[in-house]
Amino acid sequence: MNRLIFTITLLLAPLANADAPRVVTSIAPLQGLVADIMAGVGTPILLLDEPVSPHDFAMRPSQAKAISDADVVFYIGQDLEPWLEKALRSRDNKELLVALGDIPSLHRLEARELDEFGEHHEEDDHDHDHDHEGAYDPHMWLDPSNALVWLDIITGVLEIADPENKLTYRENLAEAHSAIVIATENARRALTPLADVELIVGHDSTQYFEEVFGLTVIGAFSASDGQNAGARSLNNLLGKLNPGTCVVEDVTHISRIAANLPDNIKHAAIDPMGYDQLGAGYYPRLLSSLAQSLSECGD
Q: In this structure, is residue 17 part of a structural domain?
């Protein structure tokens, strides 16, 4: 199937009425960003409204109807939300589908093989647990610079779809942008003490976050697409565990391995989707929550 590419174009016509646009977002991070831009105008609908993995979510009929009725749909892309494919392709007006993960100006990182953390391996592709060649890690919202790019795109789309509220969208953009810049610096300061702590993540969803904030992740029990580590990678990873290592569990992708490690291994739990942070000022709270949770690794 051809990838559904974002379309932000002058082909978009303003809504025929003065009502707030009906906006649907796929995951909590996008709902939070869109909600800040739409503050005072309306509230976007969130499809994945429970803390489960977005890789294999089963959509309900009511959610499919919300997509069908939407004026604008914001999502990441097929690498993260393959369950959206059928519902999106059934829409007649595809100019209003915005795959934010496909925007060329984003900072995108290639998906990592589970045996390639922190070093370059010369093995052939068949030696890997599974092949990620050419694929991007879809957890792009965990780089604040990407969130800022998305705010600009979201604002532009809403201005075209709903020009009557253009001034409100612009004002909300400036406020949201400033809040994220400040929250990023606060998180950077809070995470500085963890620079020398080796982390093992239950799910490889943190690559963007660790690059921005200088964290050291030495392995993961499951890859960025949700596939679990094979025996070879798992054995290598378990061999790296020591009392100075901290295992970081992803509450949206529970790992049985992480839950059954020795008591002398430090643990932290994070929610990279930020379900508990939804509402006004979502993204700054997400950064603060992640920094606070990870600080347990430094105790």
A: no
